[in-house]
Amino acid sequence: MTTSKNKWFLTTLQLSLLAWSGATLAADKVYVANEGADTVSVLDAASFKTLANVRVGKMPHNVQVSPDGKLVWVTNNGEPDQTADASAHKNMTKGSHDAMGKPGAVWAIDTSSDAVVAKVPVGMHPAHVVVSPDGRFAYVTNGGDNTVSVIDTSAQRLVATIPVGKFPHGLRFKPDGKQVWVANLKGGTVSVIDTASQKEIAQVPAGKGPAQVGFTPDGRLVLVSLSEENAVAVIDPATRKVIRKVAVGTVPIQLYATPDSRTLVVANQGTRKKPGKTVSLIDLESFKVTKTVVTGAGAHGVVVDREGRYAYVTNSYANSVSVVDVKDRKVVKTVPVGKGPNGISVTP
To answer: Do the Cβ atoms of 45 and 346 come closer than 8 Å?
Structure first.
């Protein structure tokens, strides 16, 4: 009788694990904002195949999957007929980020159906969006009016507008959710927002052209790409001071730390005339570039999956996504997507 019960238990456990594993794999997706195509590409994270192309607002710049994996938030410039000037946001070179004439928006995509389910107006020229670890709020940088919009994700409405530095661009939550750090592209600083009061509490001098902020998951370091210095600034979040800079490729834009907090992946975009085609892998103990991986023209957006196995990199001038094996430090797949791929996010 005991043997029979054990067999039944093991069979049930195996079936449950199989079902759970299958559901997880089926749900793993990568979302890519195609700024030149007004779409978001949906890729299968296991097969790297394109599952869908979702029509969104004008010139979608950035995407962020919510912590529960149910929604994808997309920054754009509103309905496609809101602006006729598609040339204002061609690249991340100096002077290219001219503000749009009308306020933008953040749209939400349901990951189960890959359909747009909400549209929330925000400020001028929204750039990046991040969602709090508890999923309650989305923070959006408005490059055109030097503010950050705060959205209640359940009510899907704007609840606060926070003044920050000049031309805020990339932003990330501190792992404990108590602060948001914002790269002010034209201000040379990083704004620190207290999430309890929803106010800016500091501006940290970072360097020239800070484009994106990254945190190590252990909260030990803040990393900032300096697009006009071809370097990454390393900041101690406790003292709020730059403790060193690491030289990388030309015009670094997005960066992302691996889950073990050991490696930083930096996308080097270059310029339209001289596109960058690499990502720099920085060891976060020695603060040295241990490998430069060739991807595609205009390497811009980057995200690392939850296992730390793959880094997904958008090649904004090549209209593709490179899949980088982080351990083997090489590209294992190049996936065609829409025109001008920019921001990228993966389901948690």
So the answer is: yes
